[in-house]
Design brief:
This protein is an alpha+beta fold and 265 residues long. It has 2 domains: 207 residues, Vanillyl-alcohol Oxidase, Chain A, domain 3; 44 residues, no CATH class. The chain is built from 9 helices and 6 strands, in the order βαββααβαβαβαααα. It has a 6-stranded antiparallel β-sheet. The longest helix has 17 residues.
């Protein structure tokens, strides 16, 4: 479903109403992007429901009642869930070869409508200031966490099990002279979201991390056991390319995150 940016407050309110009572059958992804065909700033909502179409239409009726400017409702088998096209998913991606992307992420535990509204306006200003970077997107992912919370936190290495929302901006840099300014916007986004996240410190899903550090990705409480496992199974720190658990200062200084294996002898 595609919505005008002016519908943002209504969308945030629906998301807040769902809150922590999100059915386990429901998965929501909001993507704020720029699309000239639809008047510039848009909000796409990719809503999935595991179950009958009739249940899905009832569950997503609050979104449909807002009269999206574009919508596509389909029923697909499990085998096609990742390959099926998503409305509004065209354009550049952080995973495209040769793409220069600056990603900034935050875990959220509460939904602050004022913070989301301010961030939307800042993104509109960003698109105006950096028209060559209008392939950039802001993503908000909301999944049911009832099953995640059913596992005790100290039983696994997976941190931040009570996360309500995963959000990030993927800022596309198509003009090298704008690196600093675009990264400054990303840092501002991360600070704004973290301040309204529901916790006093920054927490980031490890796969979305950049340079925040291992305590932010894995949590301080889990690091002692993780480092013990690292010393046992990877004492040479060979598997340390991306957001690793570090066990030596020397390796921390020498690791090259730009190319897998470039520092291996």
């Amino acid at each position: 479903m595609r919505f005008h940016s002016r519908d943002n407050t209504s969308l945030w309110e629906i998301m807040k109403d769902i809150g922590s009572n999100q059915p386990r059958e429901m998965a929501l992804t909001f993507q704020v992007n720029w699309n000239d065909e639809f008047g510039g700033l848009n909000i796409n909502v990719n809503a999935k429901w595991v179950g009958p179409m009739e249940e899905a239409l009832i569950a997503f009726s609050p979104f449909l009642s807002l009269n999206p400017i574009q919508r596509s409702i389909t029923q697909i088998p499990w085998t096609s869930i990742y390959s099926s096209p998503v409305l509004g998913s065209g354009g550049s991606s952080s995973c495209d070869r040769g793409t220069k992307s600056s990603n900034w992420a935050v875990n959220l535990y509460t939904i602050s409508i004022p913070a989301l509204t301010r961030t939307l306006q800042k993104l509109a200003d960003f698109y105006s200031a950096f028209p060559s970077s209008r392939t950039s997107v802001w993503s908000i992912e909301k999944f049911a966490n009832s099953v995640t919370l059913s596992t005790q936190d100290d039983e696994t290495a997976y941190p931040w099990r009570n996360t309500t929302i995963y959000t990030f901006v993927a800022l596309q840099i198509n003009d090298d002279s704008q690196d600093d300014a675009i990264n400054a916007f990303g840092a501002s986004f991360q600070a704004e979201m973290a301040a309204s996240s529901g916790y006093g410190d920054l927490r980031v899903y490890m796969n979305y991390g950049r340079d925040e550090g291992e305590e932010v990705w894995y949590s301080e409480g889990k690091l002692p056991r993780l480092k013990a496992l690292k010393r046992k199974y990877d004492p040479m720190e060979l598997f340390s390319h991306y957001n690793p658990v570090m066990i030596s200062e020397q390796h921390k200084k020498s690791v090259n995150h730009g190319r897998l294996g470039s520092d291996l002898k």
